[in-house]
Amino acid sequence: MTRKYGVSVDDETGGRIEQYRIREDPETGDQDIVGRSKAVRELVNIGLAVTDVIEDSDDISLDHGKPREAFARQAVLNELRRGSEE
């Protein structure tokens, strides 16, 4: 069964979602635009995966919202830096 969840977002978040819809093929440079539902679904799944990791960790205790966003952003940046150093 598929359930639909209506959400409201501010203009900044809406703009970020619109930008996320634009996909570029790394080999050809061709751009494609995916549907809003697909883009939002992917973003929600990423957010839920991060939330699961944070909540499953005994070492991390973060409030919902901005603290979790900041932590996730920094963790991804750290991992990207580590990957580029190898």
What would your notes on this structure say?
With 86 residues, the protein is mainly alpha-helical. Helix content is 59%, strand content 7%. It is built from three helices and two strands, in the order H-E-E-H-H. It has a two-stranded antiparallel ribbon with strand order 1-2. The radius of gyration is 16 Å and the shape is globular. The mean pLDDT is 87.
List the helices and strands and how they pair.
Elements: H1 11-20, E1 22-24, E2 31-33, H2 36-56, H3 66-85
Antiparallel strand pairs: 1-2
Write a brief caption for the model.
With 86 residues, the chain is mainly α.
Structure characteristics:
86 residues, globular, single chain, mainly alpha
The helicity comes to 55-70%
Strand order of the largest sheet: 1-2
Rounded Rg: 16 Å
Low confidence ranges: none
The H/E string reads HEEHH
The largest β sheet comes out as:
2 strands, antiparallel
- The overall pLDDT, averaged over residues, is 87
Oligomer: single chain
Distance between the termini: 44 Å
Q: Shape, please?
A: globular
Count up the helices. 3
